[in-house]
């Protein structure tokens, strides 16, 4: 399956700037970006909620960048410049994909297709600093394993 923006020439910096501009346009009242190791983070505040996306960047040392398959099937080491170019392309692709996801979610909310909290639920930051998605994944697994709803998920109207 083709990967979105696999051949993009848009820089990671331009995609981050586009994300910030998009968030402003849709009414965010705060924006932050940072990175640590191979993870990049985009966070924003909107509609009284903090939202955080962690974007795992490709590892420069991954074999997909440092090597290629020769036509005879053997694995061949890439030159340093070629490996760097391949890694940069993968980095640009991930930033383009994140820009698309955020823009699509905000437009879906703006168009009345969905609600803000439904669209960003997994990325909403909880009071302890974790995200709803990180908290909910094990709860969902327990519910399916035991066939019983955890108390926190059983609240509400059953939606």
Explain what you see:
This protein has two domains: 12-125, no CATH class; 129-159, no CATH class. Helix content is 46%, strand content 18%. α1 runs parallel beside α3. It contains six helices and five strands, in the order αβββαββαααα.
Describe how the helices and strands are arranged.
Blueprint: H1 12-25, E1 30-36, E2 39-46, E3 49-56, H2 63-66, E4 67-69, E5 75-77, H3 80-110, H4 116-120, H5 132-146, H6 151-154
Antiparallel strand pairs: 1-2, 2-3, 4-5
Helix pairs in contact: 1-3
Query: What gross morphology would you assign?
Result: globular
**C-alpha Rg (nearest Å):** 19 Å
Query: How many domains is the backbone divided into?
Result: 2
Query: Helix and strand succession?
Result: HEEEHEEHHHH
As residue ranges, the low-confidence spans are: 153-159
Helix content: 40-55%
Please work out how many helical segments DSSP would assign: 6
* Count of DSSP strands: 5
């Amino acid at each position: 399956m083709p990967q979105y923006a696999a051949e993009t020439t848009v820089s990671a910096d331009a995609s981050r700037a586009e994300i910030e501009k998009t968030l402003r346009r849709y009414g965010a009242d705060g924006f932050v970006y940072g990175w640590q190791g191979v993870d990049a983070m985009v966070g924003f505040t909107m509609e009284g909620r903090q939202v955080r996306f962690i974007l795992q960047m490709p590892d420069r040392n991954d074999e997909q960048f440092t090597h290629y398959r020769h036509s005879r099937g053997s694995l061949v080491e890439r030159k340093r410049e070629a490996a760097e170019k391949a890694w940069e392309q993968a980095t640009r692709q991930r930033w383009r994909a994140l820009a698309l996801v955020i823009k699509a979610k905000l437009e879906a909310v703006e168009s009345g297709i969905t609600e803000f909290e439904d669209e960003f639920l997994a990325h909403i930051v909880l009071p302890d600093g974790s995200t709803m998605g990180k908290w909910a994944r094990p709860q969902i697994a327990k519910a399916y394993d035991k066939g019983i709803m955890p108390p926190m998920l059983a609240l509400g109207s059953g939606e």
